[in-house]
């Protein structure tokens, strides 16, 4: 009984300003708390049931291998996810290495759904709105797809949901308590930046609001500002893992050399990809894509959530503006700024299906804000109907409609998002790997074969005679010096691979691909035949 009271109290909030009264009409009830928790458990069960049984495509193979080896993942490194995945691999007592990390992501994604529903409920005090928002967002095809495989987006969604919750908690807190919420928010902001850098727009806008509110409340001083900065820096502490791993770990797979400050900053700022660009090697003019990418997001909202939700979102935005709600106005501003900036730097054309799949993953954090306004519009309509008839309260119409929407989302997307028996990528890599000749050296090109074979080679290897090497990484100056120890039977005829053999101005000898093949010509029989 005490536990239920504690859960109810955690969902309650105190109205801070009567002039900016929002949509609250009642306090949290034990029944509402249980409904939200049961719905969160339901989302968790669905995610676990539909998640991949083994390695999916994308970056999963590389992320899992980096965690398995306690190495560093591709830029910007994802230290929090890497360490959590390593713990999942060590502590979960069943399933393959990939299954354990898939499970971790499903748990993080379901956690994001639960925190999001609590945020909606705290703001509206309407359990129907909370269930509706969580259901629409959790079971849309985009969110669901990236919640059932080993990826960093589940953790990013949890961070976004946590920041939204803290914004509402900050708004509700009295002047003295605001500072405590701000300390927690600063720490969570720093921690969020240890995962997905796209969240930096949200963090920056929220920081401006918080500092402004604290200044107006006359609780901000130089000392408090320094303390807030220290909390933020404390959240960034996981980045220490990158140089520690680079210096002391004997990982057989790790990306980059972070043992120096220059190497660390290069990795942190994604210099190898283009710091402010989504993808490297793309010459598409970003400015020409802004409007097409924004239009693509609007089309996504209509197709994923229907035009009804778009109308409800407009209603929710209108209500927030009319009521001069600073909290929701800030949420709207940060989402719009994020969409504009991301569309500007997403240097990929959405006309290609592959590029669309890359870009749309970053729409999830904007979707969370979109759905938040959908729920505000939904509650506004419910409140209007409640004034006209007692049917809304008598039959809990809001909750009934939310359950119907949840059922509809499940029906629409279950077939496409159910990967329970999807082993296509693993079978592709496994058959390729196990059909190799004895003592083969396998050179891979491209993300799909490289990542899946990398995972099988380092995490599930039952063919130690076969060696797998990513040919493209030979051109990176850090690869041979950092990972030579993982390939004792391979001869590297220089520091790294270039288009021509020769000595660079810094004294490093570089080799071309032909020189690399010649170095192994007499060692691998199948290579001799291929030549």
Automatic annotation (TrEMBL):
<dbReference type="Pfam" id="PF11028">
    <property type="entry name" value="TMEM260-like"/>
</dbReference>
<feature type="transmembrane region" description="Helical">
    <location>
        <begin position="78"/>
        <end position="99"/>
    </location>
</feature>
<feature type="transmembrane region" description="Helical">
    <location>
        <begin position="177"/>
        <end position="193"/>
    </location>
</feature>
<protein>
    <recommendedName>
        <fullName>DUF2723 domain-containing protein</fullName>
    </recommendedName>
</protein>
<feature type="transmembrane region" description="Helical">
    <location>
        <begin position="199"/>
        <end position="215"/>
    </location>
</feature>
<feature type="transmembrane region" description="Helical">
    <location>
        <begin position="144"/>
        <end position="170"/>
    </location>
</feature>
<feature type="transmembrane region" description="Helical">
    <location>
        <begin position="329"/>
        <end position="348"/>
    </location>
</feature>
<feature type="transmembrane region" description="Helical">
    <location>
        <begin position="302"/>
        <end position="322"/>
    </location>
</feature>
<dbReference type="InterPro" id="IPR052724">
    <property type="entry name" value="GT117_domain-containing"/>
</dbReference>
<feature type="transmembrane region" description="Helical">
    <location>
        <begin position="33"/>
        <end position="52"/>
    </location>
</feature>
<keyword id="KW-0812">Transmembrane</keyword>
<dbReference type="InterPro" id="IPR021280">
    <property type="entry name" value="TMEM260-like"/>
</dbReference>
<keyword id="KW-0472">Membrane</keyword>
<feature type="transmembrane region" description="Helical">
    <location>
        <begin position="368"/>
        <end position="385"/>
    </location>
</feature>
<keyword id="KW-1133">Transmembrane helix</keyword>
<feature type="transmembrane region" description="Helical">
    <location>
        <begin position="222"/>
        <end position="242"/>
    </location>
</feature>
<feature type="transmembrane region" description="Helical">
    <location>
        <begin position="106"/>
        <end position="124"/>
    </location>
</feature>
